Amino acid sequence: MAYVYPTAVTNVSDSFQDHVNRGSVNPGTDYTSAYGDTVSAVAAGTVADASNSPSGGGGRTVHVNHDDGTGADYLHLSSVAVRAGQWISQGTRIGQSGASGYGDDWYYGPHLHISFRPNHAGGYGNNGNQDFDAIMKSQKPPVPPKPPVEPEEEEEIMRVGQVHYTNADGHIVRALYAPGSAYWMPWQDDTAGIANGFAKSLETGASVAVTESLYNALARAAEKLL
């Protein structure tokens, strides 16, 4: 799946490889976010742990098990906005970046540390941790949506449903339904059939295309019959 950055700031102050080289127990990527910046979930998943205490090396932390089988830790937060057991969607605000650790809200300089792993192994440790920034840079940029195509005013096409129903005399009648008009337009002049059509659940067949002018004509004709 495609992930999103956890902060609006994507500059790296301490890379994954830097953490590995110095023997970090929970290697990850440090982004240079400011104190109080919004931290968002990189993927949808369930919050496995959320600690609003600055104690420990990670300070205020959140650990999320993603729906795709991966997981992530968010460390050194200044505040936590989610709770353990809560399911969150991608991009949900999970807290604010900070500098917390070892019982102090300013033990480090402000930044966000994210540790990413390809499994749901316990958080806050090296359980196959991967370079999240490298993953982000390897993703293809999203394809921009195509602009909507505007129909030509004179040739606007609308869809109407083709149905069959049994009228009051027991005859099968074919009819057109104009969506949004609340009118059934029988293909034969049978007002009893219209009433029966409203009263029963009808099986929809193939649909046909009509121009707006024909659509309006059908609606006017059906209104007269009613």
How are the SSEs placed, and which strands pair?
Layout lengths: L11 E3 L1 H6 L7 E3 L6 E3 L4 E7 L8 E7 L4 E10 L6 E2 L4 E5 L14 E6 L14 H7 L18 E10 L5 E7 L4 E4 L4 H9 L3 E9 H14 L1
Antiparallel strand pairs: 1-2, 2-9, 3-8, 4-5, 4-7, 5-6, 6-8, 6-9, 10-11, 10-13, 11-12
Descriptive notes:
- This protein is α+β, with helices and mostly antiparallel strands.
- The chain has two domains: 12-138, Glucose Permease (Domain IIA), CATH 2.70.70; 153-225, no CATH class.
- It has four helices and 13 strands.
- It has helices at residues 16-21, 132-138, 191-199, 212-225; strands at 12-14, 29-31, 38-40, 45-51, 60-66, 71-80, 87-88, 93-97, 112-117, 157-166, 172-178, 183-186, 203-211.
- Strands 1, 2, 3, 4, 5, 6, 7, 8 and 9 form a nine-stranded antiparallel beta sheet that branches. It has a four-stranded antiparallel beta sheet with strand order 12-11-10-13, sandwiched between helices.
- The relative contact order is 0.14.
- The model is unreliable at 150-160 and 177-210 (pLDDT under 50).
Mean pLDDT: 77
Report the structural category: alpha+beta
List the total number of helices: 4
**From the 3D coordinates, which CATH architecture of the largest domain would you assign?**
Distorted Sandwich
- The fraction of residues in strands falls at 25-35%
CATH class of the largest domain: Mainly Beta
N-to-C order of helices and strands: EHEEEEEEEEHEEEHEH
Radius of gyration: 30 Å
Number of domains: 2
Main beta-sheet strand count, sense and barrel state: 9 strands, antiparallel
- Give the overall shape, derived from the CA principal axes: globular
Distance between the amino and carboxyl termini: 54 Å
Q: Report the helical percentage.
A: 10-25%
Number of strands: 13
Uncertain stretches: 150-160, 177-210
CATH topology annotation of the largest domain: Glucose Permease (Domain IIA)
What's the CATH H-level superfamily name of the largest domain? Glucose Permease (Domain IIA)
